[in-house]
Design a protein that fits this description.
Number of strands: 10
Mean pLDDT: 89
Helix content: 10-25%
Shape: globular
Number of helices: 6
Length: 234
Amino acid sequence: MRILSVNVGRPRTAADRSLPGSAFATGLASGIDKRPVAGPVAVAAPGPKGEAGSGLAGDAVVSWKHHGGNDQAVYAFAREDLDRWERELGRALPAGSFGENLTTSGIDVGDARIGERWRIGGGLLLEVTSPRVPCRTFADWLGEQGWMRRFTEAAAPGAYLRVLVPGEVRAGDPVTVVHRPGHEVSVSFAFRARTTERALLPRVLAAGDGLHPDLREKAERYAASLRPVEGAPA
């Protein structure tokens, strides 16, 4: 298991983006265009969501309301899943095409458990927090018909991670899973609970403190809605 590519981006608009076949036409700046970089990149907890962006030095996050912050400091996506999309879409998808910071090799990112911890290289320690949920910017960026539906149905969304111990990352670094929780809540499971199988949401709470706070709140609200109202007829 290793890091195949480390990808960072700068703010771009439709006027200066270059991914072939895209219909990225929102007219707004976005940091989704991530490109491989050589050499080590410093990684650290950036700060609270809404007040900080990416955990990677030199990486742009434009919409702090929805992206970035401590619990979404790093986004990882498997090269194996990019390869599958290449075959399905019939187009090249270089590392960083899905806006991921880390393109991994040999890791089943969808099967990673919430709260799972990855040691990368000699010191960096990351913890899986949640799946990525597709947005309109992502759909515009790819420019594929029905992209949000297709990506959702595949249920292989990649994973957001928080930084537990800062360090550096570079292409070729080994990845070691140093902690794998015993619960069932994988990245794919949590994604299906967020999107197509909401009945799974109460079970997501088994992931405990590893959960992204937004996902925990959503699961708690849904679980509360299922409880009988005191005094209501049986």
